[in-house]
Amino acid sequence: MIIKPIIPIAYMAVICVALLLLKRKGIWAFLRQLVIVLLLFAINLRPMIPNGEITTKTEKLDANVLFVIDDTISMLATDCGTGKETRLECVREDCRYIISELSGAAFSAMVFHNDPIRLSPFTEDTDYVLSVIDAIQPLSDLYARGSNINTCRPMLLDILKEASKKENGKTIVFFFSDGENTNDDEMESFSDMASMIDYGAVLGYGTEKGGQMYVTDYSGELELLLDYSDWDNYGEAAISKMDEKNLKQLADDMKVTYLPMGKTSRLDSVLQEIRKETAGDTEENDIEGYEDTYYYFAIALLAMIVLEMILYRKKTV
């Protein structure tokens, strides 16, 4: 038997305790109340029992998908999505969407700030890839040395060379960034990578107007970053602005699509093409099947409610 709670067990336990604290007169009334609460708790657990093996079909995609994620401080600016989300939160949402739409592919992830870091090799374990992406946090402003897209170039090139040696699978690159370079270095060309990339996109985050920048404090909470480098705006909130020029240059160099993000649906045309061009064999797997049993408890609960209504009606007549 397995359980798949409808709402978290801890929350349901609090609700059940609150229901039991409602005072009722008489031992039998309390016992009925207890039975109803226990039935509610059992329904929420959603217990399931094995009912034999079932065959599932999984479509394999001959694709190795690399996420290149900018995790510099500017990615904590809050000018993405509803205007309250950080750019990095939007990146995580888009990564989840891409992984769900390209199920059957292998995924890898890297980030870059002061230095590039490989978070995951190419793997079909999407839960692992999502977990490392969810754990991404930019460096503290005490250690960050500014941002520059060039930082990721050496590692990205090495990973693309690794992917090109794989016998099967197209190489897909999704590059997530606001395009902002805060040092004086000009952006280098990425055109030598175009021949190693089959499909993908450069995804741009932020706005031309810009958003207030934040950093994570010692407790992991977001804290407004103040700018002390400009005497005209000394001590005011630091602002990060999206640089589409750099992002478009990057997309042109790598011969992929540039997409200013804000809605995951903007990815649909790119993902549709990737699925079409990388469709592989369909795998069949036998897995243990399970049958819901919560409706037995629901029937019992309904009977208890009917009984309560009958008893209440007798008292009021």
What does this structure look like?
It is built from eight helices and 15 strands. With 317 residues, it is an alpha/beta fold. The strands form five sheets. A six-stranded mixed β-sheet has the order 5-4-3-6-7-14, with helices on both faces. A three-stranded antiparallel β-sheet has the order 1-2-15. It has a two-stranded antiparallel ribbon with strand order 8-13. Strand 4 and strand 5 form a beta hairpin.
How is the biggest beta sheet arranged? 6 strands, mixed
How much helicity do the residues have?
25-40%
**What's the N-to-C terminus distance?**
46 Å
The computed structural class is alpha/beta
- The percent range for strand residues is 25-35%
Order of helices and strands: EHHEEHEEHHEEEEEEEEHEHEH
Shape: flat
Record field, number of beta strands? 15
**Spatial order of the strands in the main sheet?**
5-4-3-6-7-14
Number of helices: 8
Structural features:
six-stranded mixed β-sheet; 317 residues; three-stranded antiparallel β-sheet; 15 strands; alpha/beta; 35% helix
Layout of helices and strands:
Layout: E1 2-3, H1 9-20, H2 27-45, E2 47-61, E3 63-70, H3 87-101, E4 106-112, E5 116-123, H4 126-134, H5 153-164, E6 170-177, E7 199-204, E8 211-212, E9 214-216, E10 222-224, E11 226-227, E12 236-237, E13 239-240, H6 244-254, E14 257-260, H7 268-278, E15 279-292, H8 294-316
Parallel strand pairs: 3-4, 3-6, 6-7, 7-14
Antiparallel strand pairs: 1-2, 2-15, 4-5, 8-13, 9-10, 11-12
